[in-house]
Design brief:
InterPro entries: HATPase_C_sf. With 603 residues, the chain is an alpha+beta fold. The protein has helices spanning 11-17, 26-39, 78-83, 107-113, 138-144, 159-164, 188-202, 204-208, 301-307, 349-352, 362-369, 371-379, 384-393, 402-434, 437-451, 466-479, 484-496, 532-542, 549-575, 581-601, and strands at 44-55, 60-71, 116-124, 132-137, 153-154, 172-180, 213-220, 227-232, 257-259, 266-273, 276-287, 312-316, 319-324, 338-344, 501-506, 514-519, 522-528. The protein is elongated, with a radius of gyration of 33 Å.
Length: 603
């Protein structure tokens, strides 16, 4: 007969089964401890990797033997400390307490035993000398088959940590992993190298806003005063809209991407879930032209950095859960040049399908995976509201996410088109800047005329700051129909090189072959691609697809013909003006233009 004292889940068996709880690697498990620190209002967290030299089969080598996380958070009372290593228990389980990044009560014990067989926790609320201690030992539980937890008791933090840590907070917590047997990396340097980018990305909002400093330290357990690595984590923004990040130069101190849509880059979705309204934020960005100036920008350090950050950043309460790859085309290297961030509150955990190890939002990922079905239904005449209603009728809890997924897909489609155009035009745009002798000569001749006393209406803006000049030129070009990225590139290039002139091509509805746009102290000459003169004078000479002598001769003849026709058109224009003051003004304008052209064209 089975005793009633038997448990449905014997502790010694359950603890071993729970060691396989799905953490992607050690870095993700460490993040659970950092989550607890943030939830406890810590402003400083230190990740400590303790190495010791050990004899291997043929040589001695340093091996990572302890991992610790120290914070200056609120600390825990003995009663709360007693709960900290219980699976599924915690202080943030009720719905009305879901305001921060914690919730499930699984983080500390689950992440710890996924990497090691023993975890020790010290916590204090009145000086580190008054720390209380509790522990979980997998081997002890298996050997004794006990399900009871040890009571917290006063115990000093280990001497080695008092040597390596410069200062303990008045309140705080120290978590130490030992008997480590499931590490992906065996050296502290390797762990930090793989963790720093991930940690910087997951906690970028906290680090960037100066709410949190994360210090990463590697030290010698046998000689704790010897520290081989000690550094602060930098934010790693997959949308590349932050400055001062871990992105390589020249984008380490400035954003590499731009807000897609300008200040309208953010869309807020009001989602009704369980009779309450909640906001989901979707933000989009696209690489600046400067980031893609090189012919092979993907192989630059910043291009490789962007490749590692490809995907949709899913953020919960300011903390990233994952970079979702569902809609990423793995075969397209240009996918790295767009960024999308989706942020939601913890109150939507069930709707989004947040897992207890906080590594994914399963429902959100699933709904993104259904996007092609959703698009097919739209092509057949159904709108988003109808599709959403059908899912609700079927009892699908993901229905409120339909509109968000649809918007994201359409944003990605738009971003891909822009990037494709950007890529297609990259060589022609770079070619335009390979030889700027025309703009430079025109600038020099203009300076000469200014010295002679001639003044242009654009000259007054030369007193503006470089930043103001760039913004004015950029804004006016965008207003004229130039793409935002190209407008930014032209503005920066013109101001940086102190050019008075720039040439830009665009499609606009006008009979004019070109317009002159004074802006930011410069004159931008906007060529109308819709005008036949563009095809006969500009496009025909810029076409370098064929370089044989016959083709070259044909193109030169076409350009010459185009120029003659353009002059003939002017002649006819003059001829049709009745004699009088207006005709005299037009003829004077032709002569004045000719005099300036004579100077500009003189070799």
């Amino acid at each position: 007969m089975i005793s009633l004292k038997n448990s449905y889940v014997p502790a010694h068996l359950a603890i071993e089964a729970m060691r396989d709880n799905g953490y992607k690697n050690t870095a993700y498990a460490v993040c659970e401890l950092i989550d607890n620190s943030i939830q406890a209002n810590a402003s400083h967290v230190q990740l400590l990797c303790g190495e010791a030299e050990r004899q291997l089969s043929t040589r001695r080598s340093s091996k990572l033997e302890q991992i610790a996380v120290l914070d200056n958070g609120d600390g825990m009372s003995p009663d709360v400390l007693a709960l900290s290593l219980q699976f599924g228990n915690g202080t943030r389980l009720r719905k009305d307490q879901r305001t921060g990044i914690g919730r499930f009560g699984m983080g500390l014990p689950a992440s710890s035993i996924s990497q090691c067989k023993r975890v020790d926790v010290w916590s204090w609320q009145d000086g580190v000398e008054n720390a209380y201690h509790v522990y979980l030992d997998v081997n002890e539980i298996k050997n004794t088959k006990s399900s009871s937890m040890p009571e917290p008791f006063k115990k000093a933090v280990p001497y080695i940590y008092s040597k390596v840590v410069k200062e303990f907070g008045r309140t705080g917590t120290l978590v130490v992993w030992s008997s480590i047997d499931r590490l992906m990396w065996n050296k502290g340097e390797t762990l930090l190298r793989h963790s720093e980018s991930l940690i910087g990305r997951i906690y970028r909002k906290f680090i960037h806003s100066n709410q949190l400093k994360i210090q990463m330290t590697v030290f010698d357990l046998d000689n704790p005063s010897y520290v081989s690595r000690d550094q602060l984590s930098k934010p790693n923004d997959p949308c590349y809209l932050m400055a001062k990040t871990n992105c390589p130069e020249p984008f380490h101190n400035k954003p590499m991407f731009e807000k897609h849509g300008g200040e309208n880059y953010e869309r807020i979705f009001r989602v009704n879930y369980k009779d309450q309204n909640h906001d989901i934020f979707v933000r989009t960005s696209i690489a600046s032209l400067e980031a893609r100036t090189d012919d092979n920008a993907g192989n630059t350090p910043h291009g490789k950095h962007a490749k590692d950050n490809t995907g949709i950043s899913v953020v919960r309460a300011g903390r990233e859960l994952e970079l979702d790859q569902t809609l990423v085309s793995q075969s397209d290297p240009t996918e790295r040049w767009w960024g999308i961030e989706v942020e939601f509150p913890p109150s939507l955990d069930e709707l989004m399908g947040v897992t207890n190890n906080k590594q994914t939002a399963r429902n959100f990922s699933d709904i993104l995976g259904m996007i092609h079905q959703i698009i097919d239904l739209q092509r057949k005449g159904k709108d988003i509201d109808e599709i959403k209603e059908e899912l609700e009728e079927e009892g699908d809890p993901r229905a409120p996410l339909i509109e968000v997924a649809d918007y994201i897909y359409k944003q990605i489609t738009s971003l891909r088109k822009l990037i494709k155009e950007q890529t297609k035009g990259m060589r022609s745009k770079s070619k335009r800047y390979e030889n700027t002798e025309i703009e430079k000569k025109a600038t020099e001749y203009t300076q000469e005329r200014k010295r002679q006393g001639f003044v242009g209406s654009s000259d007054i803006d030369e007193a503006l700051t470089p930043e103001e000049k760039v913004e004015n030129i950029r804004t006016d070009l965008i207003t004229s129909g130039v793409e935002e990225e190209e407008a930014q590139e032209i503005a920066v290039y013109t101001v940086t090189n102190n050019l008075k002139y720039s040439f830009t091509e665009s499609y606009f509805e006008s009979d004019a072959f070109f317009t002159v746009q004074p802006s930011g102290g410069a004159l931008n000459i906007l060529l109308n691609r819709n005008h036949p003169a563009y095809e006969h004078l500009i496009e025909v000479l810029d076409n370098n697809e064929s370089s044989n002598s016959r083709d070259l001769q044909d193109r030169l003849e076409k350009a010459s013909e185009g120029l003659r026709l353009l002059l003939a058109a002017w002649a006819r224009f003059e001829d049709e003006i009745p004699d009088g003051e207006r005709k005299d003004d037009i003829q004077d304008a032709r002569k004045d233009w000719g005099r300036i052209a004579k100077k500009f064209l003189k070799k």
